Amino acid sequence: MKYSFCKNLSFSLLSMSLLLPYSALAINTSLIVNLPAEKLNWKVTPEGAAFAALEGDRFKGPYMAMVKLPAGITSPMHVKSANMYGMVISGTFSHIAKDAKLSSEIQLPAGSYYMIPANLPHISKCISKVECVSFLYQDGKFDFITELKQ
Predict the structure, then answer these.
(1) What are the residue ranges spanned by the domains of the chain?
(2) Hey, which of 2, 6, 45, 108 would disulfide with 93, CB 3.0 to 4.6 Å?
(3) Hey, what's the signal peptide range on this chain (predicted)?
């Protein structure tokens, strides 16, 4: 009897351990978000930049978004009050800090990563002949402060 109980218990535990990953997988698949590029909801700013929200509200707190900059555009010197992390999808960007030498400017083609620390005065550019598209994550709300304290 003891052998039968252990055998049944072992079989039950083995069955449950084999089914657990599949049941968890079935539950988690409902959490997948698929958003084809043609379904992005682009909002164009008066300056010509466009944002497509992916997660969060960029005016209220941390967010993820796609951003497009027109070919050849150069931003004014500005800061953001939160850290910004980006991955270039297409085009070529550059970002340069206020006091950096122009010779230190680095071209960031598709596949490149950048991080711009909060409160660092900088200029951002789309230096390619085609629009620049980037995935962005910012750990606080979006702002674009051009009136810098000297």
Answers:
(1) 2-31, 37-138
(2) 108
(3) 1-26
